[in-house]
Amino acid sequence: MPLISRSPATGVWLLTTPRTSYALRIDDTGAPCHVAWGPRLTPAEADSLAGPFEEPVSSFEGRPAVGEELPVDGGTRYGPPSLQVRYADGSRAFEWEPVGHRVDDSVPGVAELVLEFRDRVFPLSVALHYRVRADTDVIERWTVLRNDGGRHVDLLRADSAAWTLPPLADYRLSHVTGQWSAETRLRRERLPHGETVLTSRRGITSHHANPWTMLDDGTADEDRGRVWSTALAWSGSWRITVQRTPDGRAGLTGGVGHEGTRVPLGPGEEFTTPVSAGLFTDGGFGAASRAWHGYVRAHVLRHAGETAPVLYNSWEATGFDVTEAGQLALAERAARLGVELYVVDDGWFGARRSDRAGLGDWTPAPDRFPRGLRPLSDAVHRLGMRFGVWVEPEMVNPDSDLYREHPDWVLHLPGRRRTELRNQLVLNFARRDVADWAFAWLTRLVAEHRVDFLKWDMNRVFGESGRPGPEDGGDRVWTRYVHHLYGVLDRLREAHPELRIETCSGGGGRVDLGILARTDQAWTSDNTDAVDRLGIQRGFSQVYPARVMSAWVTDVPNQLTRLTVPLRFRFHVAMAGLLGVGGDLTRWSEEELAEAAGLVARYKEIRHLVQHGEQYRIGDPYGDGPSAVQYVAADGSEAVVLAFGASPRHGTPRVPLRLRGLPAGARFRDTETGAVHHATVLTEYGLDVRLPGGDWASSLLHLQRVPDGDAGDRAGS
């Protein structure tokens, strides 16, 4: 079956993925309308779902609020608009007039449908884009708007796409909420009638919400149930409106910006929205997550096939007290642990002795690095590690040479105070000269100091978001800032193909499909407490794979929570993603260093499964019994289980952990004990995980498939 086909009888377009179908058509008024999204359909089956168009049931109703591919503002539409336009004469509305379509299937395994429209009155063109691939159920959608006239147009709302769910008995919304150091707290809540808005008004993706959704009928769990999910590839302010109508339908629309902002469109200008991606699965939330993970690895990340190195970061060891000798001492100890990438954090440049000064002056501090960073970089490379540094290119301290020279470069409004957060201001990347300045010093830094890795941070949100002078400067900043940020990252990677970049914004404040297309991993949270990380990482994993999830082992009591947990537990939690170490190694005992080196070596044995395998979440990390994160090789030949237990309570029943994703009938050997287990027993009856005693215990189980006919096995399960 072709990826995209059209029925000549009904005009239904059918988009086909490996396990799902998406169908739409243009109605009698010229509007693009949804037909179906769910399990695979044949063209004849899709045709049968395209019933006659329904008239409003009364004069108090209009067109259904859910059911169009891009609801517009105009006529008798009263739901949240995906497209809201204001023309130069002050009038609004958009009226669909189809002008053509095209299908591009020139790339094997990929097909793109473009439906082209214009307004019936004003010279505004709209093109709806759909892209499907033969190796994923994710459907990518975006919209291109072009002002073909000679007068200005304002896009008051320009969403990427609207998504329609089939009628269900009930609806439940899954999403994440949070704040700094408490990101990605998973919420599964019954969808109320009316409109539910998820948004960021902060100029970045934000710690407080993330631009993805999952919807089900309230009965899905990790392993079963139909789930519809969407994710927006955008790293600035955004808004998603989920609605449940009085007649029992549900859908959502989402895109750039928030209420009160607009996208100016001058004569001849074009605006391309970011991708809104969606997928359907009938395998529960776990299957939805694995589908997202596979999509991110295959079609978002540029270097997903690489094995990410074990990282050491100096921040929690030194703070701003960064010196060449101190960093070299830490690097030598990190190398003893088996670390492969050493990263110098904040404090290496300018007059940076605290967060009050120096930000923006990106030259090595001469009193701390009299010969620049190159001697340290060379020493780190001689120790067998790659070399990385922390940077914050989008920020400036008022107490800096850069600000004194260019006070106009920051986001500000004439006559109003410039709000400082963390003693810093936001550089206006919407200005081309600011973006070019950032690229110039970054590419010079990477080249001159042999930098292999950048931890790109962004430690405050927007304020006074405007640009004096240029017309529409206050509105263009919201989208142009992000486009220029993307441009700097793209240019930097093109100039330095071996450079790898971590996205960070005070932790997880800027994680989304848009930034991940230009970076290699994400700093998940500034909260490194292993107990808190169990929940943070579970919420993160709903859409984003372990291949991008940075996780550190740091000192105890934890700097933020003051909680003390065993070193082994801290390592096992961090091993569920990209393992890093961030403690003050000069204070670790020889016993701790030896244990850590053994755990690093153990991670290297199983990280191919964590970073490239399929993930299964088992149990509640804060429940009475053990929980686990499991990773299985794509061919079913190996698996690793990281199991965790909270404080034990006397008399609590021992419930085995039922593993997932193992091929039925196979047998697996525990690489540590030699015990052999039957996959059917592990998945259907479970594994009795024996955790060490005490609070917050953990274990790691590495299973390798036993070849058929191998009889020399120790008894297991």
Automatic annotation (TrEMBL):
Keyword annotations of the record: Glycosidase, Hydrolase
Active site: D457 (nucleophile), D526 (proton donor)
CDD domains the UniProt entry points to: GH36
InterPro entries per record: Aldolase_TIM, Alpga-gal_N_sf, Alpha-glycosidase_related, GH, Glyco_hydro_27/36_CS, Glyco_hydro_36, Glyco_hydro_36_C, Glyco_hydro_36_N
Residue ranges of every copy of the Glycosyl hydrolase family 36 C-terminal domain listed in the record: 627-703
Domain Glycosyl hydrolase family 36 N-terminal, first and last residues per copy: 30-265
Catalytic reaction(s) noted: Hydrolysis of terminal, non-reducing alpha-D-galactose residues in alpha-D-galactosides, including galactose oligosaccharides, galactomannans and galactolipids
Enzyme Commission number(s): 3.2.1.22
Pfam families reported for this sequence: Glyco_hydro_36C, Glyco_hydro_36N, Melibiase
Keyword GTP-binding: no
MF terms in GO: alpha-galactosidase activity
Signal peptide (UniProt feature, chain positions): none
Domain of life: Bacteria
Disordered: annotated segments: 249-269
Keyword Membrane included in the entry's annotation: no
Any one of the GO BP annotations: carbohydrate catabolic process
Annotated positions binding substrate: W180, D345, D346, R422, K455, W456, D457, M458, N459, C504, D526
PANTHER family recorded: ALPHA-GALACTOSIDASE C-RELATED, GLYCOSIDASE FAMILY 31
Protein family per UniProt: Belongs to the glycosyl hydrolase.
The name this protein goes by in its record: Alpha-galactosidase
Native organism: Streptomyces gancidicus BKS 13-15
Species lineage: Bacteria, Bacillati, Actinomycetota, Actinomycetes, Kitasatosporales
